[in-house]
Amino acid sequence: MAPIDPHSFTDSTHPLTTHISLSLYFDFSTSTISSSALLTLCAPHTGDLLLDTRSLTIKSVIDPINNTPLSFCLSSDVDPIKGQPLTVSLNNNSKILITFVTSPSSSALQWLTPPQTFNKKFPFVYTQCQSIHARSIFPCQDTPASRVRYNAKLNIPHQLSAVMSARHVERRAPLAGGDSSFACDESLWCAEGRVVEEFTMEQPIPPYLFAFAVGEIGFREVGPRTKVFAESVPAVLDAAAKEFAGTEDMIRVGEKLFGDYDWERFDLLVLPPSFPYGGMENPRMVFLTPTVIKGDASGAQVVAHELAHSWTGNLITNKTNDHFWLNEGFTTYAERRIVEAVQGEDIAALNIGIGWKGLVDEMERFKDNIEFTKLLTNQEGVDPDDVYSQVPYEKGFQFLWRIERQIGRPAFDEFLKKYIAAFKFQSIDTYMFLDFLKVNVPGIEKEIDLKIWTEGTGIPFDAMEPVSNIYKKIVSLANEFKQGRMPSEEEVANWHGQEWELYLENLPKSVEASQVTALDSRYRLSESKDYEVKVAFLQLAIASRCSEYYNIVEKTLKEVGRMKYLRPLYTALVQGNVKKEEEKIFAQRVFSEARETYHPIAQGVVESILSKHL
């Protein structure tokens, strides 16, 4: 066996899947999906075929050409990271039909009961497949080295609707006579009160970009290529439509910088507060946390990042998670170019400054595991969710920014367009990128130490903080706080969320409790509607042992499930050498009460933090 990915059982000698046809019957009463998947391989194969699964019950594997059973074995050994390999014995087969049922504990799915939704009437379910969770929805070669087209039939209660990272074909009644493709009994598939939503994805995507949501979903039009979807609550939909009104302008800027937008639609889905990420770049249908709706259009910067993925990440994909920086470093660079063009250089500089501080903090986080301060990592035996960090984003950005400074922006823009055109709809690794760079920018390896940047630990000496008057002013004010000076109301009069975030991130890790309460008394940061500001302030309050803010910490941990907020708050409560018994007991209690509201990925991350420090 020759694995092609440290996080997959996929064998390099086996043909890759090129197309998957899915039939999915949603049972909200059991939080399961009864399913079938028709896999088409790139070539006929004789011998074993290995597929990734996690927490799936396999019912049958069939040769769909003659409807005869195929021999299969689901391993009884469960790898804690990769799950269970499904081995199917083939004899010159290029298609296989698998029937199976998901588990209520599927790591990709969060099932919300009606009380967990805005309207409290109907249930809701959504996916998060990155990095290695598609295998908990359907058997597949769950590696970004594999790119597949797919179509899907979702059989759901008629009061609900579905969206997917795919083109919507139609909403219709279930049909008798094979419509279910053996996903479940026909009597269930065609039962009264059920509808089928059909989708198709005609471009090849890695499995982690497979996505759907089912619930009471409405939408607003915000541009010629964009609708904003969310739970069907007018206030939520209207706020989202207002926040993301400038999306079409960003798409046009992206096309000018990086070439045509190849995905036709750029729709947005605002998910319930439990969504574990800021955004997920699912093609045609970006998933977003509601915490990006801030009321001042600044949340559009998360949209800029997910839009940038339409070129870097979705069109060109890292071959394995060892090369994750190819997705995120490029996208962070592209996001900041879009933001600079739409919102100006100062806002882009603030972004870079916040990112720089985040990168410096990650060096401290990984000081005992410096492998993960590299761009090119070795993740054999490592859960990618456990080492998810800002390093591939911010160090990757710094690397590309360093190249831009070396050769000049016009030349780098030409290089980027050439790079995207050369590798679109392919999965590549760091070495392929470096070879392409050296061919297209002759002599670059003499000017920049490419090996240090990609394989070295820490922050290279030629990385750079942003150069901007507003950035310098805010950092200077943060330094003055150490001497007890708070910024005046005049100095912060024009500050928005990003300015406050940069200021708070640059304050000392621990200050006097009286300084924390004085800062909050003047500026009410603990009450901010911007979670970036609120969470940065609450980290400061925890570090300074300001227990009067713990009720706000608890409320925050119970009302959002975004890991960007959960990770630092839980870590601040339990980490450190000082005696923190009260904080540890508090963290355990809050998590035990909030756990079921978090997505399974977030549950695992918090459990990992608590187990490390308790």
* Proportion of residues in extended strands: 15-25%
Q: What is the mean pLDDT?
A: 96
Unreliable spans:
none
Rg of Cα set:
24 Å
Q: What is the distance, rounded to the nearest whole angstrom, between the alpha carbons of the first and last residues? A: 39 Å
Anisotropy-based shape: globular
Q: Biggest sheet: strands, sense, closure?
A: 9 strands, mixed
Binding site for Zn(2+): 305, 309, 328
Binding site for a peptide: 128-130, 276-281, 562-564
GO molecular function, one term: zinc ion binding
EC number: 3.3.2.10
Summarize the structure in words.
By secondary structure, the protein is of the alpha+beta class. The protein has 19 helices and 20 strands. It has helices at 186-189, 234-243, 247-258, 300-308, 325-343, 345-365, 391-407, 409-423, 430-440, 444-447, 450-455, 469-481, 497-505, 513-523, 531-543, 550-559, 563-574, 581-594, 600-613, and strands at residues 17-27, 32-53, 57-63, 68-69, 72-74, 84-101, 109-112, 124-127, 148-157, 161-164, 167-172, 194-205, 212-215, 217-223, 226-231, 267-270, 279-280, 285-288, 316-318, 426-428. α3 packs parallel to α4 (300-308). The radius of gyration is 24 Å and the shape is globular. The two termini are 39 Å apart.
